[in-house]
Design goal:
The chain is mostly beta strands. It has one domain: Sandwich (Immunoglobulin-like), CATH 2.60.40. It contains no helices and nine strands. A four-stranded antiparallel β-sheet has the order 6-5-8-9, with no helix packed on it.
Length: about 120
């Protein structure tokens, strides 16, 4: 993939990325998660929907890694406590940086307090 960007000062650069799509985990929580960049507002919208799927009784934890660390370091950026309202939740990641790529992972705290991939 070729990623070309232009800054406000008209600096232009193209960065080439090689990537593959793979299923890393078998243990998944059924839900619909939509991630949309909102460039005008300088944020990423994460729409998390468990309303029409199997319900979770656990908190949802959102972790993020970036191209700055070659996606090796995952940090917790949001914990959504389990409530009726948390079955559908929109959260905006406003701590992103221009020109940096991000990956998100979603976890559910299980009964033993361990993280389980969503």
């Amino acid at each position: 993939m070729a990623f070309t960007y232009i800054t406000n000062n008209l600096y232009t650069n193209t960065v080439l990325y090689k990537f593959k799509i793979s299923e890393e985990y078998e243990n998944k929580l059924d839900g619909v998660i939509t991630i949309v960049p909102e460039e005008k507002d300088g944020r990423i919208k994460l729409d998390i929907d468990f309303e029409h799927t199997i319900k979770t009784n656990n908190d949802i934890i959102i972790k993020r890694a970036s191209s700055k660390t070659n996606f090796k370091i995952w940090e917790t950026v949001k914990t959504i406590p389990h409530t009726i309202e948390s079955l559908r939740n929109v959260w905006y990641d406003t701590s992103i940086e221009s020109g940096i790529w991000y990956k998100y992972r979603f976890y559910s705290k299980n009964d033993y307090g361990l993280d389980k991939f969503v």
